[in-house]
Amino acid sequence: MYRHRPGRPLHPAMNPDSAASSLQGRTVLLTGASAGIGLAAARQLARLGAHLVLLCRDADRGEQARAAVQLAAPHAPRPELLLGDLSVQAEVHRLCDELLARYPRLDVLINNAGVLPDQLHRTPDGHELCWATNHLAPFILTNRLLPLLMAAGPGARVITVASEAHRLGEIEANAAARADPGRSSAFTAYCDSKLANVLFTKALAERLELTGITAHCLHPGVVRSNLWSHSSQLVRLLMLLALPFARSSEKAAETIVQLATLPQPQKANGQYFKNGRAVSVSNRAENRSEMHRLWRISAEETGIAE
Predict the structure, then answer these.
(1) pLDDT tens, residue by residue, 186-241
(2) What span is annotated as the signal peptide, if there is one (predicted)?
(3) How far apart are CA 7 and CA 274, in angstroms?
C-alpha cells in the first residue's frame, strides 16, 4: 500500500470554487454535528456543495445546527437531520437501518461525535460511556454503512476524529474493567477510546485496501469547544490553562475538510493527521496485533461479524 509520507502537507489550501475541493453531488454523513468542530466542519463542507446528513442527539440543537449550516451556505443542498444517541447500540442500529433505507450511496462518513465526561459512566448496554460513544458507535456505523460506501465507489472514505490523547491509551479487553473506578478514570477512558480510533482506522484501511474506499483519522488540536465543559474539574482546569493556545472550532475543522476533499485519498490510506499533515502515531497504535485484537473485541461487543 502506498502511504502518504509523514510530515508532508495533504495538499495546498483549497479554493471552494476549484474542482479538487468541490463536493457537489456527494453525500456526507457527519456525526456530532450540533456544536463545536462538527458544526464548523458542517458549515465548511456545505460551502463546498456537499449534501449533508447531520447526525445529532438533541432535536433542538440539531435544528439550530441545520439552520446555521443553511445560513452559511444558502445555495448548498438543504442539510438533512437524523437524531439518535450514539452511546446506545440499539439507537445506532436504528440509525443505520434508516440510512440504508433512505440513501443509495454515501461518499464520506465522518465519525466526529465524542464525549469526555466528568466521571466514569456505564451505558444501558453495560459499556463505559467513552468507549461506547467514541469507538463502538463508529465501529457499528462504519461496518453497517459499508454497502453505501461501496455504492459510491472508489474515492469514498471514512474519517474519524481521534486525538493526541491516543498516546496515553491502552486497550482493555474486559468491558467491566473499563467502567471500574478502581482501575480507570474518565480521562483514561477517553484516551483508550482515542487509541481505539487510530487502531480502528488502520485496521479498516487494511481490510478495505482493494475496494477503493479509504480510512483516515486526525487530531483536531486543543480546541475551544464544549467537549471539555462536562469533564472533571482537573481536566477543565488544564483546559483553562491551555485556552490561550487553543484553536477555534473553525480552524480545527480544516483537517476534516481537507481529508473529505483529498483528490487522491488512497495515498493517505490508514494515516493519522495533525495540522493538515500525516504524522506518526504511538508504537501501540502501529501494532498490527493490537489492531486485530481491537477488531475482535469490538466485533464481540457489538455483534458485528468479523
Answers:
(1) 999 999 999 999 999 999 999 999 999 999 999 998 765 555 555 555 555 555 54
(2) none
(3) 9
How far does CA 264 lie from the centroid of its chain?
A: 20
Reduce the DSSP state of residue 222 to 3 states and report it: coil
> What integer pLDDT is reported at residue 221 of this predicted model?
84
1 contact partners, CB below 8 Å, separation of at least 6: 205, 206, 209, 269, 270
Active site annotation includes 190: yes
Distances (CA, A) of 252 to 218, 234, 249, 275: 10, 23, 5, 8
Q: How far apart are CA 201 and CA 246, in angstroms?
A: 26
* Annotated active-site residue in 2, 103, 190, 272: 190
Q: How far is residue 28 from each of residues 23, 67, 224, measured CA to CA in Å?
A: 9, 17, 24
Longest dimension (CA), the chain: 54
Q: Which CATH architecture has domain 27-301?
A: 3-Layer(aba) Sandwich (3.40)
Give the global pTM.
Answer: 0.89
Neighbouring C-beta atoms of residue 127, cutoff 10 Å:
23
pLDDT digits over 72-111, tens only? 999 999 999 999 999 999 999 999 999 999 999 999 999 9
- Inter-helix orientation angle 254-261/36-47, to 10°: 40
